[in-house]
Predict the structure.
Amino acid sequence: MRKIVSITAFFFSVLSFSQGSLDYGGGMKFNLNPEGTKYMRFITWNQVWLRSTELNPGTVIGEESLSRFEDAGLRRLRVLAYAQITPRYMIVTHIGINNQTFINGGASGAAGTGGYGAGKKPGLFFHDAWNEYALVLPKDSKSFSLSVGGGLHYYMGLSRMTMSSTLNYMTVDAPIFNWPLIENSDQFARQIGIFAKGKYDKIEYRFSLNKPFSTNQVPVDVTNPDLARAVDNNNVSQWSKAGYVEYQFLDKESNFLPYKVGSYLGTKKMFNLGAGFYNAPKSTLTSVNGVKEEHGINLFAADAFLDMPIGAKEKKMAVTAYSVYYNYDFGPNYLRNLGIMNEGIPDPTFTGTTALAGAGNLQPMIGTGSIWYTQAGVLLPNKNEKPKLRIQPFTAYTYKNFEALKKASNQFDIGANFFLDGHHAKITTQYSTRPNYSAVDRIENSKGEFILQLQIYL
């Protein structure tokens, strides 16, 4: 029975990492016994970006004032390894780099010209490192299961996309606000702690108790309480609690690893409804007339995921859709401006109206308030038994309504995946808009960014 459970778990883990490929099979798996129940598996992936970006007003890159810029960068270079010696024990290690460009993203202190010049030689770091033990092994597909683990982990609750796999997005990337603590009180969307995960029939659950990374930002002191703005300052951080529960109406997903699939490309029939939370007391700080006040972080989300074949079977079409609502409370007027691989800095000679978010491709990304995000795409028909190219056009919409801004924003993404071998070898194109706030109550216009991604994972 144990061997059956182990083999089944491995089979589902392979499915979750190989959507749409006819050739990938078990990947880079090294058996440690003849039955294959003791093994180690390696997964490696590269995501290379080519971009053309409309920059926010008042941007300098490399001492040159610019309004538009083209560049190339390394979005993700990763290696993940996991091993099982028995069905009850597992170890997971995940290392890599992110966001290296020609001018930033390099090693700490890299600057100027030379061997450690600007943008060069970024340091590898651990994204995941945890140990896991199965307390209750499932007897069949409808029975109860429970595993517990500890370490630097990705079981951060809140939403499906908060725990998403970066290997099989439908859009070119995550919208980023799905990781609301990113690089403040977490380490690249992870915290150190303990977690419990499992299933019962069509219900899947994940809960964790973690110690957030320390933050120490100093709030601006104001005299008007309405203008107080919370900043991340948890000092000796309190324990955070996170959880996510979903009901899987059709096919069941693997929970062998935490990474949620973005698009199955018609290899499964999925319809899931889920809800999650994150809570961390005394995490942010405001200051009014010299009096400082602590605030907790309370985050909630609800989402729906649909992925299934459509049309005549021989055409191999599929539809994918995902929608999520986030309700974020970080304290009064909390707001973070972020931009993926942002290379711009403020132009001191600029005399026009600058963007409220800052230079480069920064935008209001995360804050106290609400966000609604929806994406949908269709895998176009194909009649060949072994297609050389599959195409999946998609679109996405984002609505943000933050307390710190008096005007809500609307953003759009449109693009397509060109699958050479499922998600294992694909080219993705996407054009995205972002709001250019000139004041808290005024959106001057929208700025655009075109991204061409080259992805391979094995």
Q: What stands out?
A: The radius of gyration is 23 Å. Residues 2-457 form a domain with the Porin fold (CATH 2.40.160.10).
